[in-house]
Protein backbone atom coordinates (compact mmCIF):
# COMPACT_ATOMS: atom_id res chain seq x y z
CA UNK A 1 0.00 0.00 0.00
CA UNK A 2 1.41 3.35 -1.00
CA UNK A 3 1.09 6.62 0.95
CA UNK A 4 -1.79 7.94 -1.17
CA UNK A 5 -3.88 4.83 -0.61
CA UNK A 6 -3.11 5.08 3.08
CA UNK A 7 -4.34 8.66 3.24
CA UNK A 8 -7.50 7.70 1.34
CA UNK A 9 -8.30 4.84 3.75
CA UNK A 10 -7.60 7.13 6.71
CA UNK A 11 -9.99 9.77 5.37
CA UNK A 12 -12.70 7.22 4.69
CA UNK A 13 -12.33 5.67 8.10
CA UNK A 14 -11.94 8.76 10.25
CA UNK A 15 -13.63 11.61 8.34
CA UNK A 16 -16.29 10.04 6.15
CA UNK A 17 -19.16 11.35 8.25
CA UNK A 18 -17.67 14.82 8.60
CA UNK A 19 -16.93 15.01 4.87
CA UNK A 20 -20.47 14.03 3.91
CA UNK A 21 -21.93 16.58 6.33
CA UNK A 22 -19.72 19.39 5.01
CA UNK A 23 -20.55 18.48 1.40
CA UNK A 24 -24.25 18.37 2.27
CA UNK A 25 -24.16 21.82 3.86
CA UNK A 26 -22.18 23.29 0.97
CA UNK A 27 -24.61 21.85 -1.60
CA UNK A 28 -27.54 23.20 0.42
CA UNK A 29 -26.06 26.73 0.49
CA UNK A 30 -25.26 26.61 -3.24
CA UNK A 31 -28.79 25.43 -4.06
CA UNK A 32 -30.28 28.22 -1.95
CA UNK A 33 -28.06 30.90 -3.48
CA UNK A 34 -28.85 29.70 -7.01
CA UNK A 35 -32.55 29.20 -6.19
CA UNK A 36 -32.44 25.52 -7.17
CA UNK A 37 -35.05 23.01 -6.09
CA UNK A 38 -35.84 19.33 -6.62
CA UNK A 39 -34.04 17.72 -9.50
CA UNK A 40 -32.17 20.95 -10.17
CA UNK A 41 -30.43 20.83 -6.79
CA UNK A 42 -29.68 17.15 -7.30
CA UNK A 43 -27.48 18.08 -10.24
CA UNK A 44 -25.02 19.63 -7.80
CA UNK A 45 -24.40 16.19 -6.32
CA UNK A 46 -23.11 15.03 -9.70
CA UNK A 47 -20.26 17.53 -9.49
CA UNK A 48 -18.74 16.52 -6.13
CA UNK A 49 -17.82 13.01 -4.98
CA UNK A 50 -19.97 11.64 -2.17
CA UNK A 51 -17.09 9.70 -0.58
CA UNK A 52 -14.22 11.31 1.26
CA UNK A 53 -11.17 11.63 -0.93
CA UNK A 54 -7.90 13.51 -1.10
CA UNK A 55 -7.48 15.60 -3.13
CA UNK A 56 -11.11 16.64 -3.55
CA UNK A 57 -12.50 15.17 -6.75
CA UNK A 58 -14.73 17.25 -9.09
CA UNK A 59 -16.50 16.03 -12.22
CA UNK A 60 -15.36 18.72 -14.67
CA UNK A 61 -17.81 17.67 -17.39
CA UNK A 62 -20.74 17.80 -14.96
CA UNK A 63 -19.56 21.22 -13.72
CA UNK A 64 -19.35 22.60 -17.28
CA UNK A 65 -22.81 21.26 -18.15
CA UNK A 66 -24.21 22.76 -14.94
CA UNK A 67 -22.68 26.18 -15.69
CA UNK A 68 -24.18 26.22 -19.19
CA UNK A 69 -27.57 25.30 -17.79
CA UNK A 70 -27.38 28.06 -15.15
CA UNK A 71 -26.46 30.68 -17.79
CA UNK A 72 -29.34 29.55 -20.00
CA UNK A 73 -31.78 29.71 -17.09
CA UNK A 74 -30.49 33.15 -16.09
CA UNK A 75 -30.99 34.54 -19.61
CA UNK A 76 -34.43 32.95 -19.84
CA UNK A 77 -35.44 34.37 -16.48
CA UNK A 78 -34.13 37.83 -17.43
CA UNK A 79 -36.05 37.79 -20.70
CA UNK A 80 -39.20 36.71 -18.90
CA UNK A 81 -38.77 39.49 -16.33
CA UNK A 82 -38.27 42.11 -19.04
CA UNK A 83 -41.35 40.93 -20.90
CA UNK A 84 -43.40 41.04 -17.73
CA UNK A 85 -42.10 44.52 -16.93
CA UNK A 86 -42.88 45.67 -20.47
CA UNK A 87 -46.46 44.40 -20.12
CA UNK A 88 -46.84 46.24 -16.82
CA UNK A 89 -45.44 49.49 -18.25
CA UNK A 90 -47.25 49.34 -21.58
CA UNK A 91 -50.08 51.55 -20.40
CA UNK A 92 -47.60 54.00 -18.82
CA UNK A 93 -45.66 54.75 -22.02
CA UNK A 94 -47.39 58.06 -22.73
CA UNK A 95 -47.16 59.15 -19.09
CA UNK A 96 -43.44 58.35 -19.02
CA UNK A 97 -42.88 60.22 -22.28
CA UNK A 98 -44.79 63.21 -20.91
CA UNK A 99 -42.65 63.15 -17.77
CA UNK A 100 -39.43 63.08 -19.81
CA UNK A 101 -40.57 66.03 -21.92
CA UNK A 102 -41.69 67.90 -18.81
CA UNK A 103 -38.28 67.41 -17.22
CA UNK A 104 -36.52 68.51 -20.41
CA UNK A 105 -38.71 71.61 -20.58
CA UNK A 106 -38.03 72.38 -16.92
CA UNK A 107 -34.29 71.89 -17.43
CA UNK A 108 -34.33 74.29 -20.40
CA UNK A 109 -36.35 76.95 -18.58
CA UNK A 110 -34.31 76.60 -15.40
CA UNK A 111 -30.99 76.87 -17.28
CA UNK A 112 -32.31 79.87 -19.21
CA UNK A 113 -33.49 81.52 -16.01
CA UNK A 114 -30.11 80.96 -14.33
CA UNK A 115 -28.37 82.42 -17.38
CA UNK A 116 -30.64 85.50 -17.36
CA UNK A 117 -30.09 86.10 -13.64
CA UNK A 118 -26.33 85.49 -13.79
CA UNK A 119 -25.82 87.83 -16.77
CA UNK A 120 -28.44 90.37 -15.62
CA UNK A 121 -30.24 90.34 -18.98
CA UNK A 122 -33.29 92.42 -19.95
CA UNK A 123 -35.94 91.98 -22.63
CA UNK A 124 -35.72 94.32 -25.59
CA UNK A 125 -38.52 96.63 -26.67
CA UNK A 126 -39.41 96.32 -30.35
CA UNK A 127 -40.15 99.43 -32.40
CA UNK A 128 -41.93 99.85 -35.76
CA UNK A 129 -39.31 102.20 -37.25
CA UNK A 130 -35.72 101.16 -38.11
CA UNK A 131 -33.70 101.56 -34.92
CA UNK A 132 -31.20 99.89 -32.64
CA UNK A 133 -30.28 101.45 -29.31
CA UNK A 134 -29.07 100.02 -26.03
CA UNK A 135 -27.76 101.30 -22.71
CA UNK A 136 -25.11 99.61 -20.58
CA UNK A 137 -24.57 96.77 -23.02
CA UNK A 138 -22.17 94.04 -21.84
CA UNK A 139 -20.30 91.63 -24.08
CA UNK A 140 -21.30 88.11 -23.01
CA UNK A 141 -17.93 86.50 -23.67
CA UNK A 142 -15.80 88.92 -21.63
CA UNK A 143 -15.14 88.25 -17.94
CA UNK A 144 -15.38 91.87 -16.78
CA UNK A 145 -16.79 93.93 -19.67
CA UNK A 146 -17.06 97.70 -19.55
CA UNK A 147 -20.72 98.69 -20.17
CA UNK A 148 -21.24 100.31 -23.57
CA UNK A 149 -24.12 102.40 -24.93
CA UNK A 150 -24.87 103.00 -28.60
CA UNK A 151 -27.78 104.01 -30.81
CA UNK A 152 -28.98 104.11 -34.40
CA UNK A 153 -32.30 105.61 -35.44
CA UNK A 154 -33.55 106.82 -32.06
CA UNK A 155 -34.78 110.30 -31.12
CA UNK A 156 -31.42 111.80 -30.19
CA UNK A 157 -29.50 110.01 -32.93
CA UNK A 158 -31.83 109.55 -35.91
CA UNK A 159 -29.15 108.36 -38.35
CA UNK A 160 -29.43 104.67 -39.21
CA UNK A 161 -26.02 104.32 -40.91
CA UNK A 162 -22.76 105.00 -39.11
CA UNK A 163 -19.01 104.72 -39.48
CA UNK A 164 -17.10 103.73 -36.36
CA UNK A 165 -13.60 105.17 -36.13
CA UNK A 166 -11.01 105.14 -33.42
CA UNK A 167 -8.01 103.77 -31.63
CA UNK A 168 -6.53 100.35 -32.25
CA UNK A 169 -7.56 97.90 -29.51
CA UNK A 170 -10.19 100.41 -28.41
CA UNK A 171 -13.14 98.01 -28.60
CA UNK A 172 -14.60 98.65 -32.06
CA UNK A 173 -14.75 94.97 -33.03
CA UNK A 174 -16.03 94.09 -29.56
CA UNK A 175 -18.86 96.60 -30.07
CA UNK A 176 -19.79 94.90 -33.36
CA UNK A 177 -19.85 91.55 -31.54
CA UNK A 178 -22.07 93.03 -28.84
CA UNK A 179 -24.48 94.38 -31.46
CA UNK A 180 -24.63 90.92 -33.02
CA UNK A 181 -25.34 89.29 -29.64
CA UNK A 182 -28.14 91.74 -28.88
CA UNK A 183 -29.78 91.39 -32.31
CA UNK A 184 -29.63 87.59 -32.36
CA UNK A 185 -30.88 87.10 -28.79
CA UNK A 186 -33.70 89.61 -29.24
CA UNK A 187 -34.90 87.90 -32.42
CA UNK A 188 -34.83 84.55 -30.60
CA UNK A 189 -37.25 86.01 -28.07
CA UNK A 190 -34.60 86.01 -25.35
CA UNK A 191 -33.43 88.87 -23.13
CA UNK A 192 -30.31 90.77 -24.16
CA UNK A 193 -27.12 91.79 -22.30
CA UNK A 194 -28.08 95.41 -21.69
CA UNK A 195 -29.85 97.48 -19.06
CA UNK A 196 -32.33 98.68 -21.72
CA UNK A 197 -32.70 98.02 -25.43
CA UNK A 198 -34.97 99.16 -28.24
CA UNK A 199 -34.77 97.81 -31.78
CA UNK A 200 -36.82 97.03 -34.85
CA UNK A 201 -37.61 93.58 -36.20
CA UNK A 202 -35.20 92.64 -38.96
CA UNK A 203 -35.69 90.41 -41.95
CA UNK A 204 -31.97 90.03 -42.59
CA UNK A 205 -28.78 90.45 -40.58
CA UNK A 206 -25.25 90.40 -42.02
CA UNK A 207 -21.91 90.47 -40.22
CA UNK A 208 -18.83 90.84 -42.42
CA UNK A 209 -15.76 90.07 -40.33
CA UNK A 210 -12.29 91.46 -40.75
CA UNK A 211 -10.53 90.28 -43.91
CA UNK A 212 -6.92 89.08 -43.71
CA UNK A 213 -4.95 91.11 -46.26
CA UNK A 214 -5.85 92.49 -49.69
CA UNK A 215 -8.01 90.10 -51.68
CA UNK A 216 -7.08 88.71 -55.07
CA UNK A 217 -9.11 89.70 -58.12
CA UNK A 218 -11.33 86.61 -57.87
CA UNK A 219 -11.84 86.96 -54.13
CA UNK A 220 -12.56 90.67 -54.49
CA UNK A 221 -15.24 89.89 -57.06
CA UNK A 222 -16.79 87.33 -54.71
CA UNK A 223 -16.79 89.86 -51.86
CA UNK A 224 -18.54 92.44 -54.03
CA UNK A 225 -21.22 89.92 -54.99
CA UNK A 226 -21.95 89.37 -51.30
CA UNK A 227 -22.60 93.08 -50.86
CA UNK A 228 -25.22 93.03 -53.60
CA UNK A 229 -27.69 92.40 -50.77
CA UNK A 230 -27.85 96.18 -50.29
CA UNK A 231 -30.17 96.32 -53.31
CA UNK A 232 -33.08 94.39 -51.82
CA UNK A 233 -35.93 96.12 -49.99
CA UNK A 234 -35.88 93.91 -46.90
CA UNK A 235 -35.37 95.51 -43.52
CA UNK A 236 -31.84 94.58 -42.51
CA UNK A 237 -28.81 95.39 -40.43
CA UNK A 238 -25.32 95.16 -41.93
CA UNK A 239 -22.20 95.39 -39.78
CA UNK A 240 -18.69 95.16 -41.20
CA UNK A 241 -15.22 95.24 -39.68
CA UNK A 242 -12.52 97.14 -41.63
CA UNK A 243 -13.89 96.44 -45.07
CA UNK A 244 -11.14 98.63 -46.53
CA UNK A 245 -8.72 95.68 -46.38
CA UNK A 246 -10.33 94.13 -49.47
CA UNK A 247 -8.42 96.47 -51.81
CA UNK A 248 -6.24 99.61 -51.82
CA UNK A 249 -7.40 102.47 -49.52
CA UNK A 250 -8.56 104.90 -52.22
CA UNK A 251 -10.80 102.35 -53.91
CA UNK A 252 -12.00 100.98 -50.56
CA UNK A 253 -13.26 104.40 -49.45
CA UNK A 254 -15.32 104.77 -52.63
CA UNK A 255 -16.76 101.25 -52.27
CA UNK A 256 -17.70 101.72 -48.60
CA UNK A 257 -19.31 105.09 -49.34
CA UNK A 258 -21.39 103.59 -52.14
CA UNK A 259 -22.54 100.67 -49.97
CA UNK A 260 -23.51 102.94 -47.08
CA UNK A 261 -25.36 105.31 -49.39
CA UNK A 262 -27.40 102.48 -50.83
CA UNK A 263 -28.22 101.12 -47.36
CA UNK A 264 -29.30 104.62 -46.36
CA UNK A 265 -31.60 104.92 -49.35
CA UNK A 266 -33.19 101.55 -48.52
CA UNK A 267 -33.83 102.64 -44.91
CA UNK A 268 -31.62 99.83 -43.67
CA UNK A 269 -29.22 100.04 -40.73
CA UNK A 270 -25.46 99.68 -40.82
CA UNK A 271 -22.37 100.03 -38.63
CA UNK A 272 -19.04 99.87 -40.45
CA UNK A 273 -15.73 99.95 -38.58
CA UNK A 274 -13.16 101.81 -40.66
CA UNK A 275 -9.87 103.68 -40.40
CA UNK A 276 -10.87 105.58 -43.56
CA UNK A 277 -13.89 107.36 -42.12
CA UNK A 278 -12.73 110.77 -43.33
CA UNK A 279 -12.18 109.54 -46.89
CA UNK A 280 -15.51 107.69 -46.90
CA UNK A 281 -17.35 110.87 -45.89
CA UNK A 282 -15.75 112.67 -48.81
CA UNK A 283 -17.32 110.24 -51.28
CA UNK A 284 -20.67 109.59 -49.57
CA UNK A 285 -23.83 111.25 -50.93
CA UNK A 286 -26.18 110.59 -48.00
CA UNK A 287 -26.12 111.38 -44.27
CA UNK A 288 -23.56 108.96 -42.86
CA UNK A 289 -22.76 109.56 -39.21
CA UNK A 290 -19.19 109.15 -37.97
CA UNK A 291 -18.67 108.05 -34.36
CA UNK A 292 -15.37 107.57 -32.59
CA UNK A 293 -13.67 105.68 -29.79
CA UNK A 294 -10.56 107.57 -28.73
CA UNK A 295 -7.89 106.75 -26.16
CA UNK A 296 -6.64 109.37 -23.71
CA UNK A 297 -3.27 107.73 -23.12
CA UNK A 298 -1.69 104.88 -21.16
CA UNK A 299 -2.13 104.12 -17.47
CA UNK A 300 0.57 103.02 -15.03
CA UNK A 301 0.15 99.41 -16.23
CA UNK A 302 0.60 100.42 -19.88
CA UNK A 303 -3.05 99.75 -20.67
CA UNK A 304 -5.02 102.10 -22.90
CA UNK A 305 -7.19 104.61 -21.05
CA UNK A 306 -10.27 104.66 -23.23
CA UNK A 307 -14.03 104.98 -22.92
CA UNK A 308 -15.52 102.06 -24.84
CA UNK A 309 -18.78 103.89 -25.60
CA UNK A 310 -18.40 105.78 -28.91
CA UNK A 311 -18.70 109.56 -29.10
CA UNK A 312 -21.39 110.53 -31.59
CA UNK A 313 -20.53 112.69 -34.59
CA UNK A 314 -16.85 112.51 -33.76
CA UNK A 315 -14.00 111.40 -36.01
CA UNK A 316 -11.50 109.66 -33.75
CA UNK A 317 -7.90 108.97 -34.68
CA UNK A 318 -6.41 105.50 -34.68
CA UNK A 319 -3.52 106.82 -32.51
CA UNK A 320 -0.99 104.10 -33.38
CA UNK A 321 1.56 106.16 -31.44
CA UNK A 322 -0.06 104.98 -28.20
CA UNK A 323 0.56 101.36 -29.14
CA UNK A 324 4.14 102.23 -30.08
CA UNK A 325 4.55 104.08 -26.79
CA UNK A 326 3.45 100.95 -24.94
CA UNK A 327 5.96 98.87 -26.90
CA UNK A 328 8.73 101.35 -26.04
CA UNK A 329 7.86 101.06 -22.35
CA UNK A 330 7.88 97.26 -22.30
CA UNK A 331 10.67 96.35 -24.77
CA UNK A 332 14.42 96.22 -24.17
CA UNK A 333 17.65 96.46 -26.13
CA UNK A 334 17.72 96.85 -29.90
CA UNK A 335 14.03 96.03 -30.11
CA UNK A 336 13.22 99.05 -27.95
CA UNK A 337 15.46 101.26 -30.09
CA UNK A 338 13.48 100.20 -33.15
CA UNK A 339 10.18 101.17 -31.50
CA UNK A 340 11.69 104.50 -30.41
CA UNK A 341 12.59 105.32 -34.02
CA UNK A 342 9.07 104.43 -35.14
CA UNK A 343 7.50 106.54 -32.41
CA UNK A 344 9.65 109.53 -33.35
CA UNK A 345 7.93 109.64 -36.75
CA UNK A 346 4.69 110.61 -35.00
CA UNK A 347 6.17 113.51 -33.02
Describe what you observe in this structure.
The chain has 347 residues and is α/β, with parallel strands linked by helices. It folds into 3 domains: 88 residues, no CATH class; 194 residues, Rossmann fold (3-Layer(aba) Sandwich), CATH 3.40.50; 30 residues, no CATH class. Strands 6-7-8-4-9 form a 5-stranded parallel beta sheet, sandwiched between helices. The chain has a 4-stranded mixed beta sheet with strand order 1-5-2-3, covered by helices on one side. A two-stranded antiparallel sheet has the order 10-11. α2 crosses α3 and α10 runs antiparallel to α11.
Short description:
The protein is α/β, with parallel strands linked by helices and 347 residues long. The chain has 11 helices and 11 strands.
Please describe the topology of this protein:
Blueprint: H1 3-14, H2 16-33, H3 39-45, H4 60-89, H5 93-119, E1 125-127, E2 132-137, E3 148-152, E4 161-166, H6 172-187, E5 196-200, E6 204-208, H7 217-226, E7 236-241, H8 249-265, E8 269-273, H9 277-283, E9 289-293, E10 295-298, E11 304-306, H10 320-330, H11 333-344
Parallel strand pairs: 1-5, 4-8, 4-9, 6-7, 7-8
Antiparallel strand pairs: 2-3, 2-5, 10-11
CATH topology group of the largest domain: Rossmann fold
Assembly type of the shown chains? single chain
Give the spatial strand order of the biggest sheet.
6-7-8-4-9
Beta percentage is 15-25%
Shape: elongated
> What's the alpha carbon Rg, rounded to whole Å?
41 Å
Largest sheet report: 5 strands, parallel
What would you give as the CATH superfamily of the largest domain?
P-loop containing nucleotide triphosphate hydrolases
Taken together, the total number of domains comes to 3
Spans of at least 5 consecutive residues with low confidence: none
Give the CATH class of the largest domain: Alpha Beta
Summing up helix and strand content along with how strands pair, one would put the structural category as alpha/beta
The counted number of beta strands is 11
Task: Let me know the average pLDDT.
Answer: 85
Helix percent reads 40-55%
Beginning-to-end CA distance, first to last residue: 118 Å
CATH architecture title of the largest domain:
3-Layer(aba) Sandwich
Number of helices: 11
**SSE run:** HHHHHEEEEHEEHEHEHEEEHH
Amino acid sequence: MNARDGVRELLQAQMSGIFKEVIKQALSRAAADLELAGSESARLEEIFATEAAYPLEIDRQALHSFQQDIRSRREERGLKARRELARLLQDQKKAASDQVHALMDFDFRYALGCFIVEKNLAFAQFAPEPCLSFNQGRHLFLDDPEPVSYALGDGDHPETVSLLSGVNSGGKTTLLDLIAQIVILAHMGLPVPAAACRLSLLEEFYYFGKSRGTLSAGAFETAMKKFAIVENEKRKLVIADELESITEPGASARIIACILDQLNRRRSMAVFVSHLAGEVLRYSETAVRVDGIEAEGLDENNNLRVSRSPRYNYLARSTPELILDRLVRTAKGSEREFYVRLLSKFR
